[in-house]
Amino acid sequence: MENYDLIKKLREATGVSLMECKNALEEMGGDFDKAFELMRKKGIAKAEKKAERATGVGRIEAYVHAGNRVGVLLDIRCETDFVARNEVFIELAHEVAMQIAALSPRYVNSDEVPAEVIASERAIFEASMADQKKPKEMLDKIIDGKLAKRFEEMCLLDQPFIKDQTMKVRDIIKNYISKLGENIVVARFTRFEA
Q1: What is the CATH classification number for the domain harbouring 9?
Q2: Banded pLDDT at 125 (limits 50, 70, 90)
Q3: Same domain, 99 and 167
Q4: At residue 2, what are phi and psi to the nearest 5 degrees?
Q5: Average pLDDT over residues 4-32
Q6: How many structural domains comprise the chain?
Q7: Full domain range(s) for residue 27
Q8: Helix, strand, coil shares of the chain as percentages rounded to 5?
Q9: Are residues 104 and 166 in the same domain?
Q10: What is the DSSP letter of 155?
Q11: Hey, is 9 helix, strand or coil?
Q12: 193 in helix, strand or coil?
């Protein structure tokens, strides 16, 4: 494959500038996979730097699943009107709304889980392990692991992405942040089921 074709392919895959793609390919000796991984790492680092920026604009995405039995209203935010109207941002909003329709999360992230829900879940796990003959420290670690797994089910950003189970929803959003160059947050959502 010609060098320009590789640069173009990397740009399509990552959404970064042609110059950055060219530099990444040169840095990785022309290896597309290594350059792609480098761009992902840089993109996630950029996304984390942008996480503190205000997100006062966005869109309300409405999604109704086939059969009209499940619907979602999603409030997803970015920094500018320009990005809010961008097809790439709209694509992300649609993907996240489909995720909510499919896996029915209750919260955006684990910070939103009420203390009483955490206490209730912990009590259930403790009761189920009461007959275990293991040290308390080991039981606490097991219960913490079970709670983390439960948060993956309950919290949107912790869920495996429906179209790529190797990535969490938060990682998908970080990829879009690096593509669009703006902070993006899921503000809230509501899921309806008939």
Answers
A1: 1.10.8.10
A2: confident
A3: yes
A4: -65, 155
A5: 76
A6: 3
A7: 3-50
A8: 60, 20, 25
A9: yes
A10: B
A11: helix
A12: strand
Whether residues 168 and 179 fall in one domain: yes
What does the CA dihedral 160, 166, 171, 172 come to, rounded to 10 degrees?
-80
> What gap in Å lies between CA 149 and CA 161, rounded to an integer?
15
Dig out the tokens for 180 from the structure. 């669009």
Q: Are residues 38 and 61 in the same domain?
A: no
The H-or-E segment that residue 101 falls in is: helix 87-103
Residues 66 and 101 in one domain: yes
Chain centroid to CA 112? 16
HSE at residue 184, side-chain half, CA atoms within 13 A, is 31
Question: Among 47-61, 107-121, 137-151, 168-182, which is the least confidently predicted range?
Answer: 47-61
Strands 164-168 and 185-193: unpaired
Q: Please state, in angstroms and as integers, the Cα–Cα distance from residue 30 to each residue in 3, 14, 49, 104, following that order.
A: 8, 16, 28, 42
* 28 pLDDT tier (thresholds 50, 70, 90): confident
DSSP letter (8 states) at residue 131: T
Taking phi over 0 as left and psi of -120 to 50 as alpha, with beta for the rest, 30 belongs to left
DSSP state letter for 159 = S
pTM for the model:
0.71
Instruction: Specify whether the CB–CB gap between 152 and 65 falls below 8 A.
Output: no
